Amino acid sequence: MENWDDSVKTDMENFMDKIAPMDGSYNHSCEGPDDMPAHIKTALLGPSHSIPVADGALKLGTWQGIWLNEHRTSKMTRKVVVTIQGTT
Fold this sequence. Notes:
mainly alpha; 2 helices
């Protein structure tokens, strides 16, 4: 994702909220009104990413960065898992 201009993050959040609004008429709401929108956003963005590493550094483009998104509004505990594959 673009990491230079903060308005990109705001635009992305606004776009995702339009696609999966909190006040949508969802059947699934067992864990609250933010539950189904969070499922939809995760399905669109995916639960993981592969990022190339070479010479001990992330190989991202000039304006690329890594964003960690939480789609739930209720407090959640999360773990970040990093798996490194390859040869040295």
